[in-house]
Amino acid sequence: MVRKLVIILLFFIVLGKEALLAVAEPTTIPELMKKIEQLQEMTTDVMARVDLTQTKTGQGTKKIEMLYYRRDSDDSFMIVMIAPEIDKGNGYLRVGDNFWMYRRNTRTFQHINRDENIGGSDANADDFEKRKLTELYAPSKDASGNEIISTEKLGAVSVFRFEIVAKVNDVDYPKKIYWVMQDKGLPLKEQSFSASGTLMQTAYYINYTIVEKRYVAVKQLFIDEFEKGNKTLVEISGISTKKLDDSLFTKAYLENISK
Amino acid sequence: MNIIEIKELTKNYPLGSTIVHALRGIDFNIASGDFLSIVGPSGSGKTTLLNIIGCIDNASSGSVNIGGVEITKLNDKEITDIRLHKIGFIFQTFNLIPVLDVLENVEFPLLLMKNRSKSEVKKRAESLIDAVGLSEHIKHRPSELSGGQRQRVAIARALVTNPDIVLADEPTANLDSATGEQILELMKEMNRKEKTTFIFSTHDSNVIKYAGYVLKIKDGKMVN
Amino acid sequence: MKFLFIISLRNLFRQKRRNILLGSAMAFGVMILIIANSFSHGISDILFNRIVVYVAGHVNISINEGKGRDLPLFRDRDRLTKIAVETAGDKLIEYNEGVGIFLRAIGNGKVENLVLVGINTISRTLTQKQREEINESFKMLYGKFKDLGNKSIENPAILSKEKADALSVKPNDIVRVRYRNIYGQTQSSRLTVVGIMSNDNIFMQGVMFVELTNLKEMMGYRPYECGSIKLTLKEPQKDAADVADKIHSALRPGPAFILATAKVLNQDSSMNPDVSTSENKNSNPNTISSNNQNADTSPRVTLIPFMGNDEPLKKLMLSSFKLSSGNVKDVFGKDGMMVSDYLADILKIKQGDKLEFHFKPKFITKDKPEFAVREAIFSAVVKGIFISDDSTGKETIYMHEALFYPKFYENLPDLQSDSKFAFIPKEKASFKPALGTEWVLLDRSRSTDDLKQKLRAAGRKKIKAATIDVNSMYESASDVLKLENALNIITFTAVLILFFIILVGVVNTLRMTIRERTREIGTIRAIGMQKKDVLLIFVIETAILTAFASIAGTILAFISMAGLSNIAFQITDNPMGILLVKDRLHFVPTFIGIVGNIGFILFISIITAFFPSRKAANLSAADALRHFE
């Protein structure tokens, strides 16, 4: 479960590029997708604290807290779990092609080959490779060949609503709908659909903050539309974009921090 | 013609820390067809001498020649073969095999000889049982027989292989005198009929009268 | 010999009580040994024949087209099954496509994890035995097995009573399921409950069954594609490894290539919508007609893959080709493509130009219009031009495997008919080993560990071609055999200790007997019995006792096993329940197992009896006769 969340994190701890410009109407879907891509492009070292609040029907609420470190130069990252108690001290480290999982109670590192499944989950180390939104998806078109895009109000905010479909077959969701702020190009809502067109997940980007002149979605809510009642709230705080020391991204550091 | 030739035969065996000199130099020959008695008190060396002649014990020195074969030079397998083919035994305590019946006990030595047909073995055994007068007890186990009957079986068993020599160690010692005499009569009769050499040991003077020859032995030496 | 046997047998009965006691102890040991042996064999029978064979068949052909991920996908089902079926010949009972997925199911307000397994109910002809087996494993409480094939119902499914209760669904209810299809896409479907079965095998309780064709569609297979193939054989023990070997050699791949027409894409017309994918579900029919416009200027070329992800093979390519333009790093890199100088002349192209390729896929399906691709199209950038000769071919374009294979598999060309027109480099060409094949056939493996290692090594190589692996269950599940051996060794060791105690009894008894019979031994030796026969009498006596005890022990074991397997254990939520069949312990006595065990015990007792017997045989006849008890 935690592993899966790690993957979510990689896509959602994203720091927007400086000065997202106002979007001029009319707009095409590829342009909006480019904006989202830019939002996901990271060009800095990052350190942040991430809190995940998972609610499951019949199981109550579970809170997962972790520290996230990213080094810009080679896209290395490290995650250290803080809570719950059972996962405390466990961590993940990726440097170059190497990916390790650290288990505190056994004090062991499990090396994960890029081509191997991660510890029995269906997540693969390849998932950690970022692929651009425009490489994966293309605009949906209606019967007359026009892109499906419209303007709407989401609450009080004026947004563009647009649909995209996968153009490669190995993406999680073959179809998505985005609601993007008209003025800043920031996504506020995202729906993901299964291959058969069933709504599987809705994401809300509730709160953006500007850190060092970049937009960050510091509060994100993921609602499981398949298993109603399951949801995950992601809260990001303490974001720092200061240069991180290279000694951070080592196995030794992960071991020491967990002692 | 001598069936047995013994020269300077001695036999020593250890008993505790001392050495017992059971035989101290025996020389004698026995002619084929003799009915010989070895006489002497207990511990005189009778049984040792018989055992050596019977190839179940070996000499310490000297030579023993049976039917032209020097037995002191043979290995266990060869000497066992000599016992089987040339010698018959009659024991003081009968020594029949308890799990076998009369017929089987008599057949036993023949069965040890390989390549004899079953019917041949049975015919020969039955004729000897008949000769010792036990035809009616052919299916009885030894435990169902009297002492005299058992010794008759033993005689039949000793003779069944048509041996050159029959050795009998105190054959009448465990029998009452009447039965003992019957047994000796039987042996004598067999000696006549089959021309088999009989050597028997005894310390009973009543028995000695049956002997053709008497060899007296005392303290491991022959006495005249 | 016969009369030695008679004497031994009669001697045995002389001390009845002693021997009966000893014999009982031995019989008990034999009983325990046979029960334990049958039980461990039973466990491996369950694991092997009821689970491993169920999952993987006797022989399994597994395919992975995944680029780093597990993608069990072969693009030409008929070709693969034909090879498998023809090779197995009359040793085959049936073949199945092994298709199954884990999924999350929502019933009426309840959520459960399930395994969905496809069963071929429509096209399969069943033997009487198979029908019985199916009836045995599917005890239907409601509905019929054949309802799975009902086309008028949306995804008919059968599930176990336990799971139906857990999901609180009843017949005709809808179960919604979420899963990932073979490509990893999230997918959801609706399944209609048409049957509820009761199943004693815990392993089967979490399984939901649907018709194979429905499941394949759910999982994203096109009708002519398949996943792994599993074969069920008549005599697996005898034939499995051999059939696997033969299928393996029948599956040697031919060269991979695409026979396409090439045209130059005008660099300026980059507003042309992205056509880098060939299969575009939204593509409208005009793309097909537009392709015929300048057919004359489009030469026919052969696209050939090279294994650029394998360093030594890449070096081989480097040393075999001379470039007239382009730099080595780009040409042999991930998106690398080099065009012959001859083609470059005709097409008037230079490095950096973009080419578009059109080719005919083998499968044009009519029943599924969304899959109907009459012509596959893709484009790529020319990274270099090579100087062609007879060995490289003139109308050829060489591509990096990472560029080639996705297009190749997506719309598999008809290699057999195309090979007449395509240029296929000769076997003796120096760079031939570096060229891609239709798939990569992995070496046969001897054990589970071997297999794991091999797959890991294949994963590390980053082969872009699909890999095919042929295994018999004896290799893929050699761990199960190891488990059985381990169980046997454990029980055998335990029983061996028991037997040593018994054998101390044998030795003791024999020594007593010999002492009692010393004068008898003397007598028979005096009469002329050879030493070896005396020895035999005693050995035979022990052997007869052991044999009697073994027979008694075997009978007792069978009675006990019949008794034990009459007891029903109600284990429902314990994994040990897997080891039960119909709630009962599962014993599989084997002739070889029993004979082997008895043989071993006989051997041990004879060895044990040998030494005291030899001592008896070596007694001096004179001494033995003097012996008085």
What does this entry look like structurally?
With 259 residues, chain A is mostly beta strands. Chain A has a single domain (2-257), classed as Lipoprotein localisation LolA/LolB/LppX (outer membrane lipoprotein receptor (LolB), chain A). Chain A has helices spanning 2-12, 29-40, 133-136, 251-257; strands at 46-56, 60-71, 76-83, 91-95, 98-103, 108-112, 137-139, 149-154, 157-166, 175-181, 187-193, 199-211, 214-224, 231-240. In chain A, strands 1, 2, 3, 4, 5, 6, 7, 8, 9, 10, 11, 12, 13 and 14 form a 14-stranded antiparallel beta sheet that branches. Chain B is an alpha/beta fold. In chain B, the strands form two sheets. A six-stranded mixed beta sheet of chain B has the order 6-7-8-3-9-10, with helices on both faces. Chain B has a four-stranded antiparallel beta sheet with strand order 2-1-4-5, covered by helices on one side. In chain C, a hairpin with a 2-residue loop joins strand 21 and strand 22 (584-585). Chains in contact: A-C, B-C. Chain A binds chain C through residues 57, 113-117, 122, 124-126, 138, 140-141, 145, 165-174, 192, 194-196, 198, 200, 226-227, and chain C through 67-70, 104, 106, 111, 176, 178, 180-181, 183-189, 220, 274, 277, 280-282, 284, 456, 459-460, 462.
